[in-house]
Amino acid sequence: MKPYVVCLMASSLDGRTHPSRWRPKGVGGDWFEKIHDELGGDAWVIGRVTGSEFAKGEPYPETDAKFPRENWIARRDAKTYGVVLDAYGKIGWGRSDIGGDPIVVVLTEGVPDSHLAGLRAEGVSYIFAGKSGIDLALTLDILSRELGVKRLLVEGGGVANGAFLRAGLIDEFNLILSPAIDGARGAPFVFDSTEADSEQRAPLTAMTLESTRDLGGGVLLLRYLIQNGASK
Fold this sequence. Notes:
The chain is an alpha/beta fold.
């Protein structure tokens, strides 16, 4: 069964997600983690670029060991899991959790055995969700079957968010909107794509504003329910 998928992001009025670039400075407050906790996901997911910001290790050394391309779960008893999309095994973690949430890496079957050896040595769980590219629908199915995930928070970056959106997998969008503007090129957006996916459109057929919450200081929490249909 597909988990209920909530995308949570914080942005400026022009949809940019790096607060250090926003003007005026210092607006928005520290709302992201608070809302994250309120939403109560069984797991949260981020992309490789965002995941790299949490990594403490180096690329794993070469090994002669061979491993089957089968899911390997180090822990099944966690309240919440931190899921990272790392299709080609680029991140050397140097840790097994983020904020106490065990890491689960989503890989493709083309990753080297040395990477699998490194993940196992550090106690980092991994699952396979495709041969050469990550199948997000399959990812959700595996998280549900293997770890019992019923509610998943998608939390960026923009390319990962956009991939879930274009796959028609997001059920709800929560946006923490701050009274600030980036106003310059180069900053990431809430939803984005790779160049290869730039012409692909999301199968989104309707968005319903479920609630608007004033968080103070001009910051709003907008909650939208999303309806997906066949892609065109």
